[in-house]
UniProtKB/TrEMBL annotation:
Catalytic class of the enzyme: transferase
Keywords assigned: Acyltransferase, Bacterial microcompartment, Metal-binding, Transferase, Zinc
Pfam families: PTAC (PF06130)
EC number: 2.3.1.222
Species this chain originates from: Roseiconus lacunae
Signal peptide interval: none
UniProt-listed InterPro entries: PTAC
Compartments it resides in: Bacterial microcompartment
Pathway assigned to this chain's UniProt record: Polyol metabolism; 1,2-propanediol degradation
Name of the protein in question: Phosphate propanoyltransferase
Free-text function comment from the UniProt entry: Involved in 1,2-propanediol (1,2-PD) degradation by catalyzing the conversion of propanoyl-CoA to propanoyl-phosphate.
Reaction(s) this enzyme catalyzes, per UniProt: propanoyl-CoA + phosphate = propanoyl phosphate + CoA
Family membership: Belongs to the PduL family.
Primary location: other
Length: 242
């Protein structure tokens, strides 16, 4: 198969499309594959993207059927930047103490081994839930809630968290930054009169990931991500801030 050639107009169109889809930065798997780059790389180097991860729910297969009916499966509506992950058509109501609720929270796929609700701090206040900051999947000892779907409800005994900020990357990205899975990094968002530095950005490295930082809605608003002019990711403790 002949290599795919991209002219300047095509590349600019890809960049505009990536920016419109949410988050600062750009990247395209097809472009990377065509040029022999690692996933998400452009012109032979990592291409940093920072995205706001709005509140969402992860479900088990069992809970999908309970909430949406026997035999139900998640129906993809929009692919996420990370390959293989998607926003489903389905939403659920999240109910906290004293019947406080968020009426329409998006379910993300694919399904998982344990259901989990990821909120921003203001969401947890609205629900009346003291949700701790946790990395995804670390739900032992966390509060629960009730999920309500069109076919039924689920009482979660645990699983409500405020997702800790993190960066997805592949092993080539990790080598470029001199980090490994589980390390911490530092993110600087430069925006007009609102420049913000985020510490404790967890590295989540695997073979196929594309370089993307996830921050929550409150963090995105605090740094005015939509108006950012520059994003910088550095290894914690590297002295880069001096």
């Amino acid at each position: 198969m002949n290599a795919i050639e991209f002219d300047r107009a095509q590349i600019e169109a890809l960049v505009r499309q990536a920016i419109r889809s949410g988050g600062l930065g750009s990247g395209n798997a097809a472009l990377g594959a065509a040029t022999g780059n690692p996933p998400g790389w452009v012109d032979g180097k990592p291409n940093l993207r920072v995205s706001i991860s709005a509140r969402h729910v992860h479900l088990t297969d069992e809970h999908v059927e309970t909430l949406f009916g026997r035999g139900a499966t998640l129906e993809p509506e929009k692919d996420l930047y990370q390959d293989g992950f998607y926003a489903a058509k389905q939403t659920v109501m999240v109910v906290g103490p004293r019947r406080r609720m968020l009426p329409s929270v998006r379910v993300l796929g694919p399904t998982r081994s344990a259901s989990q609700v990821e909120l921003a701090f203001t969401d947890s206040i609205s629900l009346g839930i003291d949700a701790p900051v946790r990395h995804s999947g670390h739900i032992d000892g966390t509060p629960g809630c009730v999920l309500v779907g069109p076919a039924g409800s689920v009482q979660l005994e645990q699983g409500v968290i405020r997702a800790a900020r993190h960066v997805h990357m592949n092993f080539a990205d990790a080598a470029h930054y001199g980090v490994e899975n589980g390390d911490m990094m530092r993110l600087k968002i430069t925006s007009h009169e609102c420049t913000t530095v985020f510490e404790d950005v967890l590295v989540r490295a695997d073979e196929a990931a594309k370089l993307e930082v996830h921050i929550d809605t409150d963090e995105g608003n605090a740094c005015h991500l939509d108006g950012a002019s520059k994003v910088e990711l550095t290894k914690s403790g590297c002295g880069c801030e001096k």
